[in-house]
Amino acid sequence: MPASTDVTPGTILLDASANNATESKVKYYAPGNIKADANGWVDLSSGNRADISSFMTAQPPLTGPDAVIEEGGAKTIIGASTSTADGVLVLESTTKVMVLPQVESTNDVKDPAPGMMVYLNGVNKRLAVYNGSKWTYWVP
């Protein structure tokens, strides 16, 4: 997980660093939030941990002829020509927002991947985050 000094508030990530990805959780960075830990991270997994070891071993290799190596400061910025935010994908706008996929139920999502997020547009409107084991629900 990145050091708090390198993170922009509002960053959401799947933290697979704990115990070799056997206790992953989805977090967002909100320093000063009353639910945040000492480093400024809020756990969106509602205490539910997931073992995503098998997903992590399916990632592209970092060595050999098929290696996929991220360039040091590489990032894609959408919405602006530059950004001070650090991330692989940075959405930058003061007037527009990211719209998540909308579903009636998480049962409508076939084969969810760890870190996947959807907006439930059914009776109970809320954010659903898949931590690799189960869906957790978040209402701000």
Give a description of the structure:
This protein is mainly β and 140 residues long. It contains one helix and nine strands. A four-stranded mixed sheet has the order 6-7-8-9, with no helix packed on it. Strands 1-2-3 form a three-stranded antiparallel sheet, with no helix packed on it. It starts with 11 loop residues before the first strand and ends with a strand.
Subunit arrangement of the protein? single chain
The helix/strand class is mainly beta
- Main sheet, how many strands, which sense, barrel? 4 strands, mixed
End-to-end distance: 23 Å
- Strand fraction equals 15-25%
Percent range of helical residues:
under 10%
- Helix count equals 1
**H/E element sequence:** EEEHEEEEEE
Low-confidence stretches: none
Tell me the strand order in the biggest sheet.
Answer: 6-7-8-9
Overall pLDDT metric: 79
Strand segment tally: 9
